[in-house]
Amino acid sequence: MAKPKIKAKPSRKKPARRNKKKPSSGLLKRSFIKLSLLLLAVLAAYVVYLDYTVRTQFEGKRWALPAHVFAN
Questions:
Q1: What string of pLDDT tens digits covers the 72 residues of the chain?
Q2: Distances from the Cα of 7 to the Cα of 1, 2, 10, 11, 52, angstroms
Q3: Residue 64 within a domain
Q4: Domain around 61
């Protein structure tokens, strides 16, 4: 005896899933490069400031130590 066939219900189409896009690596790289350039500019400005400060402090005292050492 053959088994009676069961009618399959028509399957509903599932809505197409949209891929959730991750932030592109290009955006991440650009952000990292911009941040690096900003930090580099801040560091360069600080080095220039320190150079100016040290030069002004030692400008007048250039010969003070050698003159004191050789005076004795």
A1: 667 777 766 677 777 777 666 657 888 999 999 999 999 999 999 999 999 998 888 887 766 666 666 665
A2: 18, 15, 9, 12, 89
A3: yes
A4: 26-71
